[in-house]
Amino acid sequence: MNPALLPAVRSFLSSPRQLLIDGEWVDAKDGRTFATVNPSTEEELVQVAHASSVDVDRAVVAARAAFESGSPWSKMTPRDRSHLLWRIGDLIDAHADEFAQLEALDNGKRVEAAREGDIAIAAELFRYFAGWATKMEGTSIPMSVPGREFHAYTRREPVGVVAGIVPWNFPLLMACFKIVPAITAGNTVILKPAEQTPLTALRLGELLLEAGVPAGVVNVLPGFGDTGAALVEHHGVDKVAFTGSTEVGKKIAAAAAGNLKKVSLELGGKAPNIIFNDADIEAAIAGAVLGGFFNEGQCCVNGSRLYVQRGVFDQVVAGVAAAAAAIKVGDGFDPTSQMGPLVSQEQHEKVLGYIGGAVRDGAVLTAGSADRVGDRGFFVQPTLITGVDEQMAVQTDEIFGPVVTAIPFDTEDEVVAAANNTVYGLAAGVWSNNIGTAHRVGARLRAGTVWLNTWHADDVTLPRGGFKQSGWGRELGSFGLDDYTELKTVIAELR
Ligand code: ADP
């Protein structure tokens, strides 16, 4: 066992983790468990209960009962909910080191990156939405019916039981992206963490109970795709909020048709990062490195397709390649590491397969390698690929690893067409010191988030989501509650 581990983390890993249903920690009804693995060492961390459709039924009954009028949750005032949310944010902060270690063990990312990024933002998310709990206002709307008088108004009401299904790249943060807006609006939640990274969501479940979230309001069901599918098919679930692959997103959209549950989807991306000749080249290179390799490349808004205007192509490629080669890849607990491993063996094989495939197709590895780094752990050296054409798999597919392609371009029209030539539309970026070029090209890019002369600049106040096959709906910011509320119109005749 890693000597740096906090006692609280050791204790959390010392016994099998269970499901959270109706405020109780319980085994899966059929007793199934699975191992969660440390991607830096490939060692098993702990066994975790694997929820089946029977457990999904139990959780739906609990979440429904917690939602119904007359329940403690339904009787909480918006102010009570606001205070509760704030309290949870503070509790996460108080346990931040513990969460950071658990996240680093389970996902592989650096402890420091988890601490400063995932965990700090998760806490802030609770505090940001604490403010919205008391501000979910309706409107009063005039009616024009001759000879009669009406008072018409709208109310924003919770949707009901929300299933949140999340991926492994930002495990705690993605769980909070679903739980926080859902409970802010008064819904109840069943969260299914990713099978690769269930630990921080389970630890959060403990803190939610400690903070005073009533039983059944948030249930946590670890499991695989079968658990997610059982939630999506369940007629007692009113809404699914999903983040993950476009492939699974399509399955969810189809499976949700049974009871026409509401669906919001945050799916894959293959973001173009466009650097013009007139950009601040030093800043653009640094942005391309951060945009391409952040979170071990496992981030759906990473700028994985670099388009560089011909006048600065060689300079940018040389700069990004030098930076990529200098990144020290290693265990997330080693303070000298600058990048951790990929999350799983499956992901490791997939990413190395894409790099090897590009080499076989005739592309050039300007930095990085198709070989694994070290003989243990799922490490990959950040890779920059040139000599790529638009048809190659590395250029069309979301790889979800530290792999960036670079292609030269000549004109604005040419690069806009190439950048938009993808089924995805999650993020895009432009580097130019000409304000007109930056804003004009930004407007022409078909993506939910566009960065101009920056990358990964972010805040919980900003809505995010995808155009095209990158999803349905928007999360966070003032728009982030819309998908978690039903709008009711009330018409009263004044007699
Ligand atoms: P990734 O490719 O990033 O692993 P996935 O889309 O495969 O992303 O998985 C994201 C989440 O969706 C995980 O929690 C996974 O268990 C869950 N999942 C996988 N298949 C299904 C499915 N058919 N229905 C519902 N959830 C699923």
Automatic annotation (TrEMBL):
One of its GO terms (molecular function) is oxidoreductase activity, acting on the aldehyde or oxo group of donors, NAD or NADP as acceptor. Keywords: Oxidoreductase. Residues 25-490 form the Aldehyde dehydrogenase domain. The active site is at residue 266. Pfam families: Aldedh (PF00171). The keyword Oxidoreductase applies. Belongs to the aldehyde dehydrogenase family. PANTHER family: ALDEHYDE DEHYDROGENASE-RELATED. This is Phenylacetaldehyde dehydrogenase. It comes from Asanoa ishikariensis.
